[in-house]
Design a protein that fits this description.
The protein is of the alpha+beta class and about 350 residues long. It folds into 3 domains: about 150 residues, Reverse transcriptase/Diguanylate cyclase domain (Alpha-Beta Plaits, 2-Layer Sandwich); about 55 residues, 5' to 3' exonuclease, C-terminal subdomain (DNA polymerase, domain 1); about 110 residues, DNA polymerase, Y-family, little finger domain (Dna Ligase, domain 1, 2-Layer Sandwich), CATH 3.30.1490. Helices cover about 35% and strands about 25% of the residues. It is built from 13 helices and 14 strands. The radius of gyration is 21 Å and the shape is globular. The relative contact order is 0.13.
Length: about 350
């Protein structure tokens, strides 16, 4: 049986800002665009979240919710450096590290460099070292598979640790709201609710055939995780074919200028990731999902490799003009770079599919 840890940094971007600027500590901090313009919230501190501020909200609305909030522009180089420090701590424990983004990763510590049989103690040591070496806090989930470890890491945020043992798994899953299941978005959640599926316990009562009939190929996945089964290994040291960023908007957006603001933030993040891996790319892909959930992509491949945010934003603007975005409302925007000038290892952060960033 595997021993898996999921580490998730707490309010990562905002925490880095509070660490680097003592005047921001204990205060509501919003990382993102200008509240006086068309800016969008990238992330915010826990102090700001108490006012209802969240990722992908317009900065103007965030200001209305909390006029005393302090708005700061993202500094992706600082976030990448902090992420690198945290990754080094992971690699001191195990080579089986699978980053999901700048601020979270899976670790398989079934066999580890510390010769410690307790995944819980390893998670405690990792969290302690992260704080000692970066002055940032992290939450951890510990279990026997990736699904349970990831869900567990969110239970006691911020700065918490949750263990789900094989003996506890059935009860833990039974009480878990289906919206907490990876792969269950708003549409799938509503479809499940119409079937009377509100929790993992409700999901457990449905047969494989029923779930496949209603949810297609995802039906088997839901059937398995309702029973605590997730055989996915922690995978490291493979070559990335692409790096991407996506923003799922809390509210449908019809303003193209705001769309470009979001794409600009994504371009800045991708540029930072490319620099971190000393790479450049030849292809940029724009992903647009309209309010009716129709999804399309537009791509451009160029002769000279690019790595700068300004180059990506200019290309993204051209690609956006080839869509109906603006004429139709949009609920998701994403940028992906591929066809790398040199191989980008998995150790670089992967695509983020949840609300920006």
């Amino acid at each position: 049986m595997r021993k898996i840890i999921h580490i998730d940094m707490d309010a990562f971007f905002a925490a880095v800002e509070q660490r680097d600027n003592p005047q921001l500590r204990g205060r509501p901090v919003v990382v993102g665009g200008d509240p006086g313009g068309r800016g969008v919230v990238a992330t915010c501190s826990y102090e700001a979240r108490r006012f209802g501020i969240h990722s992908a909200m317009s900065a103007a609305r965030a200001y209305r919710l909390c006029p005393q909030a302090i708005f700061v522009r993202p500094r992706f180089e600082a976030y990448c450096e902090a992420s690198r420090q945290v990754r080094e701590i992971f690699l001191d424990c195990t080579d089986l590290v699978e980053p999901l983004s700048l601020d979270e990763a899976y670790l398989d510590v079934t066999e580890n460099k510390l010769d410690n049989p307790s995944a819980t103690r390893i998670a405690q040591q990792i969290r302690r070292r992260i704080f000692e070496e970066t002055k940032l806090t992290a939450s951890a989930g510990v279990s026997y598979n990736k699904f349970l470890a990831k869900v567990a890491s969110d239970v006691n945020k911020p700065n918490g640790l949750t263990l789900v043992t094989p003996e506890q798994a059935a009860e833990f899953i039974a009480t878990l709201a289906v919206r907490r299941f990876h792969g269950v978005g708003r549409v799938t959640e509503k479809r499940m609710q119409r079937l009377g599926i509100l929790t993992g316990g409700d999901l457990l009562r449905h047969s494989l055939g029923t779930l496949q009939r209603h949810f297609g190929s995802s039906g088997e996945y839901f059937y398995q995780i309702a029973r605590g089964i997730d055989e996915r290994p922690v995978v490291s040291n493979r070559i990335r074919k692409s790096i991407g960023k996506e923003t799922t908007l809390a509210e449908d957006l019809a303003d193209r200028a705001q769309m470009l603001t979001i794409l600009g933030r994504q371009a800045e993040q991708l540029a930072a990731l490319l620099r971190q891996g000393d790479g450049a790319a030849y292809c940029l892909t724009l992903k647009v999902r309209y309010a009716d959930f129709q999804t399309l992509t537009r791509s451009r491949t160029v002769a000279n490799a690019f790595c700068e945010a300004a180059q990506m934003l200019a290309m993204a603007e051209e690609l956006l003009a080839k869509t109906a975005a603006g004429q139709q409302s949009v609920r998701l925007l994403g940028l992906t770079v591929s066809q790398f000038e040199q191989d980008i290892p998995l150790a670089d952060p992967l695509q983020l599919e949840l609300p920006f960033p």
